[in-house]
Structure formats: C-alpha cells, structure tokens
Specification:
The complex is a heterodimer of chains A (about 325) and B (about 375).
Chain A lengths: L1 H8 L1 H26 L7 H26 L4 H30 L4 H24 L26 H4 L5 H18 L1 H11 L1 H6 L4 H27 L11 H11 L4 H19 L8 H5 L1 H10 L22
Chain B lengths: L2 H30 L4 H13 L2 H26 L7 H18 L5 H30 L3 H23 L26 H6 L13 H18 L1 H11 L1 H6 L4 H17 L3 H8 L10 H11 L4 H24 L5 H49 L1
Helix pairs in contact in B: 1-15, 2-14, 3-8, 3-11, 3-13, 3-14, 4-5, 4-6, 4-11, 4-13, 5-6, 5-11, 8-9, 8-14, 9-11, 13-14, 14-15
Classes of the chains: A mainly alpha (about 325), B mainly alpha (about 375).
Chain lengths: ~325, ~375
C-alpha cells in the first residue's frame, strides 16, 4: 500500500504529469474561447492532428535548411517555427469549421465530426507526400530544455526542476492571459455576450458572426499549438494517432473547468496526471490495458457531473441567424 | 415548375452537387501530385465497375456500412449523437466471436443466431451507459460515447491478448482468438446467387448479412414512417415541446432509439468476423463506426438512402484501392474526398432546408394575405 502511494507520488511521475498537462490544457483553453462565443468544437481532436503533422514536418524541414548554415541555431529556430506553423495550420483548418458552422449554420457537432474525418485523411496524405510513408515523420529535435536555476542543484528535485520544455511556462502565461482577456477586455466581454445571448449582443451592434469566427479561430490556433507540442516536444516526431483522443479529453477538461481558462488549468492537470499514470507501468497487478483508459474513464465521470454540475454558456451550440430570432 | 417538383429536384440535386464539389477538391489534390484527375477518375470507374471481383467486393464492403449507417441514423433521428458505434461494434463483434469459438457442437440453426444475439447484446451493453448518463445526469453523449470507444478498444485488446488468445498461436506474432466452430459462421451468398443465375467470383465473402442489412433498413424505414412509435420519434425530433404536450415521454423514446442504435451497431462487424475471418484478430477492421456517421449524413438519416450511401462509400473505397495500385495515387486522396463530400453535403442540405422554409413562409403569407389584399382592392374600387 505504501509502495503504491510512493509510486503514485514520485517526482518522475509528477514531472511527466506536468508535461502531459500541456496539450490538454492548450486545447481546453481553445475550447473555452470557442464555446464562450457559442460554438461547440468537436473538431479539436482533428485540429490537434493537423497540428502534430505540421509541427513535426516544419521543424524537420527548417532544421535541415539550417543544419549547414548555422547548426547552433537549430534547437531554437526549428522548433519555434514548427510551433508557429502548427498554430497557423490549426487556425487555417478551424476556418473550415467556422465557415460550415457559423456562416452556413450547419449543426456544429456534424461539422466537427466531419473535420475530424478530414484531418485523419489529410495528415496521412501529406505525410506520404513529404516523407513517403503514411504514419510517421523522421525524428526531430525539440527546444533546448530549461532548468529552474535555484532548484536544479538539489538532486532529489531533479526530475521536476530540470528538462523543462519552454512551452510549459508559455502555456501558463497563455492561461493567465486568457483569463484576463475573457474577464477584463472588451473583446472578452463581447465574445461572452455572443455566447450567452447573441440576439442582445447583435442589438448592441456586436457582429455575432465576427466574434464567433474569432472564437473558433483562436481555438484552432491553440489546438494546433497543442498538436505541435505533442509532436515536437513530446514525441520528437509525428506518429499517426499520437493525439489519442486528447482533443476530446480537453473538452471534458473545459467542462470540468467551468468554461474558464483557470478552471481548465486545474482540470487539465488532473487529466494530465491520469495520462501520465496511464503511460507508466505501475506494478499493481492490474492489466495495463485498463490503466491506459484512466483518462477516458475520468472524462466520463466528470461529464456525468459526479464532481460538479456543468453550467455552459446559454447559447452554446446554437447557430445564430438574424432573421430567425 | 410547381414548388413541390422544384423541391424534389433540389433535394435530389444536393448530393450530386456535393459529390461534384468533393471531386473538384480531390482533383486539385491529384493535380498537385502531378497526375491527371480525369485519368484517375476514369481508372477508378473502370476498376470498380467493370470487374466482377470489384463489384462483389463493393457489395461486401457495403454490408458493414449499411449496419453502421443505420445505427448512426437511428440515434440521429431521435436528436441523439451516437458517435460510439465504433466501440459498440467492436464489443458486439467480439461477443459474437466469443460465442463462435467458446461453444462447440451446436447445430448451425442455433449457433449462428446465438452469435448474432451476443453481438446485439454487446452493442446494447456498450450503448447503455452513455444514454443512461445522458438522461439521468445530463452528460453529453458525444463525449461519453467517444470515451467509450477508447475503453472498448482497450477492453477488446485485453480480452484478445491476455484472456482468449489462441494457445495454438503462442510463439507466433499472431494475436487472435481460436477459430470458430463451422456452424457459427454465416453461409455465403454465392450458392443462392448462382441458383438464380448470377455468377460471382469464387473467393467472394459476400454473405447473408447483406440481405439482412437491406431488410433491416426497409423495416426501419417502415416503422419510422408508419408505426405509432415512429410517429413519436418524429414528434420528439421535430418538436420536443409539442411531443411533451401530447404526453409522449421524450426520455423513453430517446432511450429506446439509442439502444436500438447500439443493437444495430453490434451487428456491424459480423459480416467480416463470421463471414470472412472466422476468428477475431488484433487487426480486425477499425473505423467502420466513423464511416457510418458519413453514410448516415449523406443519406440524411433516411434508412433507404443509407443503402445507396453505403454502396457509394464502398465504391469509393474499392476505387481507392484501384488508384493506389494502378495509378500510384495514395488512397488517402479518396479519404479526403469522402470527408469533403460530407462537409459539402451538410452545407447543401442546410441550404435546401432553409430555402424550403422561406418558400413555405412566403406561400403561407400569400394564402393568408391574399383575401386581405383582395378585400382592400374591392374597398378601393
């Protein structure tokens, strides 16, 4: 029993939990923007897949271009351009969802599902085009890792204090920024107004369509970024299916976090922990297949409200049209 | 053209336009990889439609898609999103497989129906939790069913690798169940087809699940259109408030439809597992549940339309094999084509629906306002 507790709290596991929180967190934040504006985005999983491919492919190509010219710059420039490409690709891909679900007012769930189908085919096709095989890219180098200056000297804390991806602190900054944007800025208030009561917002001269596009595009950029993190920082290359449903888990994290960036942080940390646990063979006698589904089981429990009752934005998921109010 | 004729033409035209749009996008991709789209489409048509083995393969591939499309459509018809057909058919197919290999010595008339019952039960079991959580706790079924898909995949993997792995395969890389008792396997269609003068290739695994799927779609179409329960389903989907006023229990209708969806989902993998493989393998076909969503969307949840949509998707799938082998075009181009068709079709249907609504409104205004206008005209004269 003590052994089990020790193995559940060891630092290597916690460090892995922190690393695995990031992709769920970034995507959950994206979902917050989209749903605060009133658009459900089931397509986040597909957007993440697009991000994993473009992140890895761009990093690989940039690294090759720089290798002869300036090898020292590779671990900075290549992953940075890769992350930006992943975000841009995610944003562009989410534009499909915006056009279909906001402009044409097609059911948002249908549009999201179609987006996921498209992403799988697209990633396989592009990977064949670039690398000759359907399922994986060549290995790549991520960012040079950081260490916390004061703590790295203490050997016991080494797993947590060293080898930190710079994306992790960046993600935390994005959370705080997101919370501030949604609570304090004009843009945030308008976005939320459009998600709560689009007709009222419309009357006040806020363009519902424009705000909803903004919400969806931001969610695409963040989910793309999450995909880029997965392939550049976690996987050191693109592998088909590497998102493993994290886009959907992020939706559960968003709900558990009550549609706020700070809430999404807490919820994502929980899912990140389960994710880390599922990747580790804990010697409990439980077959590993059951351990791998821990994040998915946790998502169901959270959705069933065994933890807290959900309070979504009032107009979440409902297409808005001026003439049909 | 009368409004009614115009409407029918529009509704028929929408899928064709969507397929055309999809083909256009795919053409761009084919051009980008330096091939001629017309050559590729020509090859696809020739390969899929002029070879006897291709035609048989299309009907064989369409069989699971019919069940998958119907399963998805049954839930969509009740305003529910069963994205969990994927997991439900995996559990159903494994349950049927278990009956197939674990029991020996039953006559064919008992063993096969028993395997089918196990598949139904497997699908229903896997659908039970999401719908219960939806109705009791308000948990959105889209995410819970997706999560159940992952859990199903892990469960089947565990049962396959750790519990029921064929001992005869130990030491080989093959992870699969023992072979089924011959009486659990479904008879092939070839003898019956040859009896009526239709010849099909000898190795075709086309089996009796195809006619079963067709009959199931027709029965579903009839029940939804003509039965009392079908009327309730249409009321719940069309106008929940009115349905409630008419003392229809929305929860009961949704519960029944979701379980029906799960039951049909349980049958998706049977044509493959009982008709082709004869054992359950770790590489058992995946993704049929998601293709079912596409089929249902294309068919607009119409059970008869599902037959056509399933054949179209099976044709595209077969064609994809052809272009990959003979034109060196990655089959993923066809996967992209399928997804674009779906996006285009939902937009097209939405536009038609909106057009119909404004037309009806205009018509209603004319009928209501005509006497008024006439009266006003008389008054002025």
């Amino acid at each position: 029993m003590i052994d089990l507790l020790v193995s559940l709290l060891n630092l290597a596991l916690l460090a892995s939990a922190v690393r695995l929180t990031v992709p769920i967190l970034l995507t959950a934040m994206g979902a917050v923007y989209s749903e605060r504006g009133g658009v459900v985005n089931i397509g986040l999983e597909g957007i993440m897949i697009v991000g994993t491919f473009f992140g890895a492919a761009t990093t690989h190509l940039v690294a090759q271009a720089f290798l002869s010219a300036d090898p020292a710059a590779v671990p900075v420039i290549a992953p940075l351009v890769g992350m930006l490409a992943a975000a841009a690709a995610g944003m562009l891909f989410s534009l499909v969802h915006a056009v279909v679900a906001v402009t044409f007012r097609v059911d948002q769930i249908i549009s999201g599902v179609a987006l996921n189908l498209l992403a799988v085919g697209l990633a396989r096709f592009l990977n064949i085009l670039f690398f000759g095989v359907a399922t994986q890219s060549p290995g790549i180098q991520g960012f040079a890792p950081l260490a916390i200056p004061g703590l790295r000297k203490i050997p016991a804390l080494a797993p947590l204090a060293t080898g930190i991806s710079p994306v992790i602190p960046a993600a935390l900054v994005l959370v705080i920024l997101g919370q501030w944007v949604l609570v304090r800025t004009v843009f945030g208030l308008r976005l939320r107004a459009v998600g709560e009561h689009p007709a009222a917002a419309d009357t006040l001269g806020i363009s519902v369509t424009r705000m909803r596009y903004a919400g969806v595009l931001i969610s695409g950029a963040l989910a793309g970024l999450a995909g880029g993190y997965l392939s550049i920082e976690q996987g050191r290359g693109y592998l088909e299916g590497m998102t493993q449903g994290r886009g959907f888990i992020a939706l559960a994290a968003m709900i558990f976090g009550n549609w706020w960036p700070l809430g999404a942080l807490g919820a994502s940390a929980l899912f990140g922990y389960f994710d880390a646990l599922s990747l580790r063979v804990v010697h409990t006698g439980v077959p590993y297949q059951f351990i791998t589904v821990l994040p998915h089981v946790a998502s169901i429990l959270v959705l069933a409200g065994f933890v807290r009752r959900a309070m979504p934005p009032a107009a979440d998921g409902i297409p808005y049209s001026k003439e049909e109010v | 053209m009368s409004p009614r004729v115009r409407l029918t033409v529009l509704q028929m035209l929408a899928p064709l336009l969507a397929i055309g749009f999809g083909a256009l996008v795919a053409s761009g991709i084919i051009l980008a990889i330096g091939k001629n789209p017309l050559d590729v489409y020509g090859l696809m048509l020739r390969f899929s439609l002029t070879r006897a083995d291709s035609v048989a393969a299309i009907f064989f591939k369409a069989t699971p898609l019919i069940f998958a499309g119907l399963a998805v459509a049954l839930s969509f018809r009740a305003n529910l999103w069963n994205i969990g057909v994927e997991g439900q058919y995996y559990v159903g197919a494994f349950a049927a497989a278990w009956v197939g290999f674990a029991i020996r010595g039953l006559p064919s008339g008992v063993h096969l129906p028993l395997a089918v019952l196990a598949a139904l039960a497997g699908g229903v079991t896997w659908a039970l939790l999401p719908i219960a959580l939806k109705l009791r706790r308000g948990a959105h079924e889209v995410i819970t069913t997706i999560m159940m898909n992952y859990i199903a995949s892990a469960l089947v993997l565990y049962l396959l690798a750790d519990v029921f792995r064929d001992p005869a395969q130990a030491g080989t890389p093959r992870v699969r169940t023992p072979e089924f008792a011959p009486n659990a396997r479904v008879p092939l269609l070839r003898p019956a087809l040859e009896a009526v003068g239709i010849g099909i290739p000898e190795h075709s695994a086309l089996n009796w699940f195809l006619p079963l799927g067709v009959v199931l779609c027709l029965v579903a179409a009839f029940l939804l259109a003509r039965s009392r329960f079908g009327l309730e389903v249409r009321a719940v989907a069309g106008n929940p408030t009115a349905a409630e006023t008419a003392a229809i229990s929305i929860g009961r209708v949704q519960f029944m439809m979701f379980l029906a969806s799960g039951a049909v989902a349980g049958l998706v993998g049977l044509s493959d597992v009982l008709g082709f493989f004869g054992y359950f393998d770790i590489d058992f076909p995946k993704g049929l549940g998601f293709l079912g969503i596409s089929v249902a969307l294309l068919a607009r949840n119409n059970p008869v339309g599902i037959l056509v949509a399933a054949l179209l998707f099976a044709f595209l799938d077969r064609g994809a094999q052809g272009v990959q082998v003979f034109a060196d075009v990655p089959r993923e181009v066809i996967t992209i084509l399928q997804a674009v068709i779906i996006l285009a079709i939902v937009v097209a249907y939405e536009l038609v629906t909106r057009y119909v609504r404004t037309q009806r409104k205009r018509e209603a205004e004319r009928v209501i306002l005509a006497p008024v206008a006439a009266a006003a005209g008389e008054g002025g004269a």
